[in-house]
Write a structure and sequence with these properties.
MetI-like fold
């Protein structure tokens, strides 16, 4: 059989498989379009296609003008961005050493560390909030221990911007660690041993060999964490201050307490626009990996 004939056979086989593949992905794509794309488009249209004083519908950006001219709304957005950025930084600082240890360590201790790192994945947010209050809240366990050794009490982060920050970092550690460990799987032991054989120190191995190979994994981990943190509700609602508040509780209060759906939807669209930036980073990373293959 000639090479051309074999190529024709493979091409015909691929053409027969193509409709089957399209049918397999048709249902998930339709569900995504129905449950994700359609609500997003509908929300955007709802916020800009508004009735005027006479009840006639037309394009209006009044809700967006109100949001960006309202000091309280801007303070809530600023608090959300501040919390999101610090959470992302702390997650990389905390989770990268844990992932490195779990990638290269052997033995029972590493298994225990991995179990502790993944444990928050199985703890509901409301339970985490209650545990936070009992430990770091006023007259919590930390205060009791400090009082027992005659030390002054600490200022509790409960009901301050640091409360949701601590809770969100702890809540996002498992996913971040798992993503980083998966990325570290692409770092071979042979490349590290070769670098050490030529005299590379540990920090040089980290900077020149490990970090360049897990850059995409770090970006994906940060993107996923940011998307979850920006839309978080339970931890900011229970642990955070009443004012300013993060966007999740702000949207819920605007919709339920103030019964103002147009402004609540506008807040959701603005939050989505910030989240889509990090989503594009994730998509870019996936496309880059596909091209690399």
């Amino acid at each position: 059989m000639t090479l051309a004939a074999a190529s024709d056979i493979v091409g015909a086989s691929n053409k027969r498989r193509r409709p089957v593949g399209l049918l397999l992905v048709a249902l998930p794509v339709l569900l995504v379009g129905w449950m994700v794309i359609y609500p997003i488009v509908a929300a955007v249209i709802t916020t800009i296609w508004r009735p005027d004083a006479n009840g006639r519908y037309g394009i209006s950006f009044g809700t967006y003008q109100f949001f960006f001219s309202d000091g309280y709304s801007l303070a809530n957005l600023s608090l959300t961005l501040w919390t999101t950025v610090l959470c992302a930084i702390f997650l990389v600082i905390i989770c990268l050493p844990i992932a490195l240890y779990l990638r290269f360590a052997k033995g029972r201790l590493a298994a225990y560390v991995q179990g502790l790192a993944i444990f928050p994945l199985f703890v509901p947010s409301i339970i985490l909030s209650y545990a936070f209050i009992r430990v770091l809240g006023p007259n919590g366990m930390v205060d009791i221990l400090l009082n027992a050794v005659h030390l002054p009490k600490i200022r509790s982060p409960y009901l301050t911007p640091w409360g949701p920050l601590i809770g969100l970092v702890w809540d996002n550690i498992p996913l971040t660690v798992l993503i980083l460990i998966a990325g570290l799987g692409s770092v071979s032991d042979a490349s590290i041993e070769a670098a050490r054989d030529v005299g590379a120190r540990s920090w040089q191995v980290l900077v020149h060999i490990i970090l360049p190979r897990i850059g995409n994994s770090i970006l994906v981990a940060v993107s996923f964490s940011v998307l979850g943190i920006f839309s978080a509700f339970t931890l900011p609602y229970v642990l955070g201050p009443a004012a300013p508040e993060m966007m999740g509780p702000f949207m819920q209060r605007t919709f339920r307490d103030l019964y103002d759906p147009p402004n609540a939807i506008t807040q959701a669209v603005i939050a989505f626009l910030f989240c889509i930036v990090f989503g594009l980073f994730y998509v870019r990373s996936v496309v880059k990996n596909q091209r690399g293959r």
